[in-house]
Amino acid sequence: MDDRGRPPLPARLTGPVAAVLLVLAAVLVAVAATGGLQGGDTATAVGLAADRIPGVTTLALVVTELGNTVGSTVVGLAGGALLAGRGHRAAGLCLAAVPLVASVVFTVVKRLVDRARPPADLQVLAVANESLPSGHATMVAAAWTTLVLVTWPLLAARGRVLLAGFAVLWAGAVGFTRIYLGVHWLSDVLAGWALGAGLAFAGTTALAVVTARRRVGAA
């Protein structure tokens, strides 16, 4: 992973994906905020609450704590520092910056939408602040998607598969725990995943554009 000459994924690939994901996140937030998804949200929350198993609930509490917004920020900062230390400064800055930007974006959206959490009788953890989008889902998607994207050109095929597979499973697990524990609606998590991944693709698109301009200027 010390080949510093490999360019990032091209903007022509990451840019359209970023646009689609961010539009999807905006649509999910808008529809959920107006109650358009409340029927499915309620059915999912009530169904999971009725089917909770003590051992699974304990595991969910551990996963949701490890995958919290601080944990995802640490992934970005630590991974970014490691990449920068190996000579990939732009990629490292991108990885460190995207989760920080995501934390600001989801906080602003939460405050603007001000959607209520699921009722207290469904919650394993007592949480009362704004619900939409899920901060856990946004941040885990932002950090791990960015990590996969910025390291993709630097890894062998096996490393790509392993990292991408873990990222998908971890982001899925963290998001699921938020619904399972009754602290978020399903649409909160879906919107968070789309927003976080969209910001990750947007960040790597910016990385690709900046890198391409530097290469042209140095030519």
Automatic annotation (TrEMBL):
Location in or out of the cell: Cell membrane
Domain of life from the UniProt record: Bacteria
SMART domains: acidPPc
InterPro entries: PAP2/HPO (IPR000326), PAP2/HPO_sf (IPR036938)
Transmembrane segments: 56-83, 90-109, 137-155, 162-181, 193-212
Organism, as annotated: Pseudonocardia spirodelae
Bilayer topology annotation: Multi-pass membrane protein
Name listed for the protein in its UniProt record: Phosphatase PAP2 family protein
Keyword list, A-Z: Cell membrane, Hydrolase, Membrane, Transmembrane, Transmembrane helix
